[in-house]
Design goal:
Layout lengths: L4 E6 L6 H10 L4 E5 L1 H7 L10 E4 L8 H18 L18 H26 L17 H32 L13 H11 L4
Parallel strand pairs: 1-2
Antiparallel strand pairs: 1-3
Helix pairs in contact: 1-3, 1-6, 4-5, 4-6
Pfam families: GST_N
GO molecular function, one term: glutathione transferase activity
Protein name: GST N-terminal domain-containing protein
């Protein structure tokens, strides 16, 4: 019997979009519950860790952590393919997270490390406006002209110096394994789901 799966997040891409992509690629049915921002205030205290996304399986307890969800979808896909072993669907080359193949998983996790480092390097550029005290500036600083100029400066520096370094690393991974996907697979894996959503954010 199919499991009843529900993914709950805001109606934006954010950290849930790689999971949504993985569900689509894996062909796993799920409920894509999208919360309006004005609903969040009432929901937040009821959420584990006060965060989204949450994943609910068969109306069980809410589960957290987007990267754990992403890997879980990959493992569920493999489990489903093993059940359909006799059918043509059991094609190892299209697995999102081939847990029985340590060498393939290592390549996925290696690429994931680079993508995560890239995402972390961008976080201050995004977050400093919302949390000035965290970044050593007084409350309200980023509402001033000086504050706006500071954010602009930090972001331009990232685009000019930091991003090219990581882009080079990602290009290096593609060249190293001679693949069109980041983990040199014949089809996308979970790391491609993360990378495409993050990089696509800069084209909007």
């Amino acid at each position: 019997s199919m499991e009843k799966i529900k993914l709950t997040y805001f109606n934006i891409e954010g950290v849930a979009e790689p999971i949504r992509l993985a569900f689509a690629l894996a062909g796993i049915e799920y409920e894509d519950e999208r919360i309006a921002f004005d609903q969040w205030k009432d929901m937040k205290p009821k959420m584990p860790f006060g965060q989204l996304p949450v994943l609910t399986i068969n109306d069980g307890p809410m589960q957290t952590q987007s990267m754990a969800m992403l890997r879980w979808v990959g493992m569920m896909q493999q489990q489903q393919q093993q059940k359909q072993q006799s059918s043509s669907h059991s094609d190892k080359s299209s697995l999102l997270y081939p847990v029985n193949d340590p060498a393939a998983v290592y390549k996925i996790e290696e690429a994931m490390g680079v993508v995560e480092d890239l995402r972390k390097s961008w976080t201050p550029c995004l977050a400093m406006g919302r949390a000035p005290l965290t970044y050593g500036h007084p409350e309200g600083f980023f509402d001033t002209a000086d504050g706006q100029a500071r954010i602009q400066q930090v972001r331009e520096l990232w685009v000019r110096e930091t991003f090219p370094l990581y882009a080079q690393q990602l290009q290096g991974l593609l060249a190293k394994y001679n693949g069109q996907w980041l983990a040199s697979t014949e089809a996308p894996t979970i790391v491609d789901c993360v990378a495409v959503v993050f990089l696509r954010g800069f084209t909007k």
